[in-house]
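Researcher: I'm preparing a figure for a lab meeting and need a structural model of a single chain. I don't have an experimental structure, so a prediction will have to do for now. The sequence is pasted below. Please return the structure as tokens so I can convert it later.
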Amino acid sequence: QVQLVESGGGLVQPGGSLSLSCAASGATFVDYVWAWYRQVPGQQREFLAMIRNDSQTNYADSVKGRFTISRDNAKTTVFLQMNSLKPEDTAVYYCNTDRWRYPWGQGTQVTVSE
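Model: Understood. Here is the structure written out token by token.
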């Protein structure tokens, strides 16, 4: 059974950085495009970034130039380096494949505030 476990969130001041990880245990990791999403209560889940197996990436305009997605196929883990964080980046962050193949994990809370 596949389990997605996100970690690395926390409280950070505006302009700060955080590094998120998502461990995908039991997944056929290498075969899929992986992505990061975020969700604010009462809003739809928002796509942030995706990475193919050849390491090609794509980003939402809202995070382009500030966030970097990467993956480690051997460790079945996808990462999100977040720099220059803004208060509007506050959300719960999730990973999944680009087509939401697996059950969602619990996410990791990111709060950007003074």
